[in-house]
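hi!! sorry for the late reply, been swamped w classes. u asked for the two structures so here they r. pasted raw, havent cleaned anything up. first the sequence of the first protein and right below it the tokens
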Amino acid sequence: MPEFPFTRRRALGTAAAAALAPTVAGFAEARADSRASGDGEDELHVMSFNLRYASAAPPNSWPERRPVMRALLHAEEPHLVGTQEGLYPQLLDIAADLGRHHAWIGTGRKGGSKDEFMAVFYDIRRLAPVAFDHYWLSDEPYLIGSNTWGNAVLRMVTWIRFRDLVTGGEFYHVNTHLDHVNQQARELSADLITSRFAEFDASLPRVVTGDFNVPAHRNPVYDAMLVGGGLVDTWDAAERRSDAYATFHGYRPLVPDGDRIDWILVTPGVRTRYAKINTYERGGQFPSDHLPVQAFLRF
């Protein structure tokens, strides 16, 4: 597959869309088939999901997990999924399983198809990307693969400005995965992410998805995202919630009321009708070592 080593934001137009593959995978075909959802529902169903990178070695190999992942996504039908840890062939599998009404945007942490992605999947009947970009969590955010804060692995952000084809409104989606080892790097990452909100149109809502690798309410990173970023936690703000579990389980028994390290955050004024930590499994097989978190939003 061709590399796509861009370093600056790109606005999307119909003529440019085909040139952006594979970073905007299936976009040209998706635009041709794009239409608003037919159910008239204005709630936006958002999911954040650490996919656990594809491994061929059992137990919990990708061949074992893929059918369960497919069944989960088909059952839930999210409009927007911010993913973490996906490898390029794995993302192609998910795209194939979701079908022609979905497209995705992403690039590898080392650029192109290399390493893990912060890929974003979206339902083309509901959402159309207007602009997007990637940057790296370092002192040199537009240097592909940069790592200056001591992250154990490369970390990055993918953001997209979407137009909602049902409501006609627009919003920003920011998707990330913070380091699993270095607390200082996590704090610097949170500061960078929130500071870059200043480059967005302040009149538009923001939706942030990610694996932050720290528990909600019990780490400075959480405070930085909410206070510094002017965001609210959809789990706390939700009008209704599912049962609570630790969102990382590592294929071990689920922990009720455990640490939520995967979050969906939004700007104040975005209404969270329902928040969910999804415990779907089939025959004891989970689709990932994380539970997906979901929020049903109304702008």
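now the second protein. again sequence first, tokens right under
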Amino acid sequence: MIDIYTDGAASGNPGPGGYGVILRSGAHYKELSGGFRLTTNNRMELLAVIVGLQTIKSPGQQVTVYSDSKYVVDSVEKKWVFGWVKTGFKGKKNSDLWMRFLHIYKQHHVKFVWIKGHNSHPENERCDQLAVAESRKGNTLPPDVGFEAERNKPSFL
């Protein structure tokens, strides 16, 4: 059993953003973080889950993802994202990340649990610290190519 705790942050939304991830399995513990100079909170919430799942080395694992993002948890648990696939993500944001998510999601047995953010949950608080620290790196962060491509796409497409 692997537990993944995630959080995302963006200052300005869009603005500089970051994500934080904790993976825990038995005695094993790992923290991950990263960020982008222009992105959104929802993208960072979703990317945190993707990075956590991609870090697992062997497929077929039992994984519980703990997130304070209703956007991510509800999209998966209420099966909205699977409907978006059928419509080619028409009118939906973050399709690049959702496609990455679906690819790695299929490799494991994943359950999502929503937790209330900023509610003294130790792992969620730590993930928030990691995400915010990354977001504060500002212009030293790399571009979020997927966000910028989506943002610059003509609205008539």
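hope this helps!! also noticed smth abt the second:
The chain has one domain: 2-151.
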